[in-house]
From TrEMBL:
<keyword id="KW-0812">Transmembrane</keyword>
<dbReference type="InterPro" id="IPR005017">
    <property type="entry name" value="OMPP1/FadL/TodX"/>
</dbReference>
<protein>
    <submittedName>
        <fullName>Outer membrane transport family protein</fullName>
    </submittedName>
</protein>
<keyword id="KW-0998">Cell outer membrane</keyword>
<comment type="similarity">
    <text>Belongs to the OmpP1/FadL family.</text>
</comment>
<keyword id="KW-0472">Membrane</keyword>
<dbReference type="GO" id="GO:0009279">
    <property type="term" value="C:cell outer membrane"/>
</dbReference>
<dbReference type="GO" id="GO:0015483">
    <property type="term" value="F:long-chain fatty acid transporting porin activity"/>
</dbReference>
<keyword id="KW-0732">Signal</keyword>
<dbReference type="Pfam" id="PF03349">
    <property type="entry name" value="Toluene_X"/>
</dbReference>
<feature type="signal peptide">
    <location>
        <begin position="1"/>
        <end position="16"/>
    </location>
</feature>
<keyword id="KW-1134">Transmembrane beta strand</keyword>
Length: 440
């Protein structure tokens, strides 16, 4: 029943802000700078450091549900024109159940992993003013099965097994010359490649890649796979707890549309219909270490340091289009990314104002993993820093409500890969999280 409930939850795309990963998961962590390695963040610990689940009182069960509302503000400017992305609201629910029984803590949950998305109308500069919309919508979610074991009074070890699913929509218009720049060596060249190469004015004639189901909760190209998180906590003394986790790079199958779920070709001609495959798209490994200090009964200070392995996952974005007409063959694309590994510092504090009310605040600092010359208006994962605050309120000993607001200040970068038409992209974002938890 728990698995069925988890899988029934919709999981929309997210404009994530540590590259394609969220800056934090659920309301407690996202009100304390995203730090979650060495303090009790509730059931969201299964998505970050599952060893923290053992901080739950022995003999209890806990059910929690959380709703995230992401509000990105993205603009792209070129040729004296500025276009604003219409992808400005994404709803992301999550939930989980955990139980502690002696040395063992276990459970199940569903959480968003990350993603990104933008939408531009057909009159925008991003759509080359061709009257056709441009959009991207990547969503990655997980069903999580965590198990934690308390070895002794100081040490806890844990692991989370993840069933991962991903979906993607892309609608992209560009000049034939731009699209030709993405072509990789062709394994099965046919009429489609011949048609592209025969265009007499490649800089003023436009081509299009299109696969989209216009659904906020899924994409036309889909994949499933697995992942895992290994974690541990170690209690130095009654005030200080250390934690660490390693999230393995995902093992997703290639994302694919159905046999007629995509189209490709030169605008003005009949677009070819076929299947699009996104080859070996994976979410990155994440190494995190952290600590918490219970300064006194009222004050808790936390800090995490994360290292995200984007260089291994986002070297290039590879796609293959297979026409439904055998004579047209297939087209292989390789869009260069060359993302850099990313370091993120999370700092947070919590003040217990009363038995019922806890106030929280935090910040996170990171670098931008996307090189300026490869940043794309459909994938503007350029955010750096965040300011966060929130609160928790206990209605009873069993029932609590948590809320957080994370703000990512505006970041702007300019892609000068085409000196004749520099492209400037800006991105800021708010992330509101609301969560309810019951312990029984």
């Amino acid at each position: 029943m728990a698995v069925a409930a988890a899988l029934s939850l919709p999981m929309s795309a997210a404009m994530a802000t540590n590259g394609m990963l969220m800056e934090g998961y659920a309301a407690v962590a996202t009100s304390m700078g995203g730090a979650a390695q060495a303090h009790d963040v509730g059931n969201a610990g299964m998505a970050q450091n599952p060893a923290t689940l053992a901080l739950q009182p022995d003999g209890t069960s806990r059910f929690a549900i959380n709703v995230g509302m992401l509000q990105p503000d993205v603009e792209s400017s070129a040729m004296g024109m500025t276009s604003k992305s219409g992808g400005d609201f994404y709803l992301m629910p999550s939930m989980g159940y955990t139980k502690r029984n002696g040395a063992w803590t276990y459970g199940i949950g569903v959480f968003a992993h990350g993603g990104m998305g933008t939408e531009y109308d057909g009159s925008s500069v991003i759509s080359a003013m061709q009257g056709l919309p441009s959009r991207s919508e990547l969503g990655v979610g997980n069903v999580l099965i965590p198990v934690a074991y308390q070895v002794n009074s100081d040490l806890t070890v844990a692991a989370t097994l993840k069933f991962v699913w991903a979906s993607l929509d892309i609608q992209m218009t560009g000049s034939v010359a731009q699209l030709a720049g993405y072509l990789a060596p062709q394994s099965n060249p046919g009429n489609l490649v011949t048609n592209l190469s025969s265009v007499s004015s490649p800089t003023t004639t436009f081509a299009r890649i299109d696969f989209s189901d216009d659904n906020k909760f899924s994409g036309a190209a889909k994949a499933t796979g697995f992942g895992a998180i290994l974690g541990a906590t170690y209690r130095v003394n009654s005030e200080v707890l250390l934690g660490a986790s390693y999230q393995l790079r995902t093992r997703l199958s290639d994302m694919q549309t159905n046999s007629t779920g995509a189209s490709f070709g030169v605008i003005g001609s009949a677009l070819d219909v076929g299947k699009m495959t996104i080859i070996d798209f994976q979410m990155p490994s994440v190494l995190a270490v952290g600590g918490s200090w219970q300064v006194n009964p009222s004050w808790l200070l936390v800090a995490d340091l994360k290292y995200i392995g984007w260089a291994d996952s986002m070297k290039s974005f590879r796609m293959r289009y297979d026409s439904s007409i055998s004579a047209n063959g297939s087209v292989d694309f390789a869009i260069k990314q060359e993302w850099k590994d990313q370091t993120v510092l999370n700092l947070g504090a919590a003040w217990k104002a009363s038995e019922q009310l806890t106030l929280r605040a935090g910040v996170s600092f990171s670098d931008n993993p996307v090189p300026d010359q490869y940043v794309h208006p459909l994938f503007p994962a350029i955010e750096k820093n965040h300011v966060m605050f929130g609160f928790g309120y206990k209605f009873t000993k069993a029932d609590s409500f948590n809320a957080s607001l994370a703000h990512a200040p505006k970041v702007a970068v300019t892609n000068n890969s085409d000196p004749s038409m520099p492209l400037t992209i800006s991105h800021s974002q708010n992330n509101l999280q609301l969560g309810y938890s019951r312990t029984f």
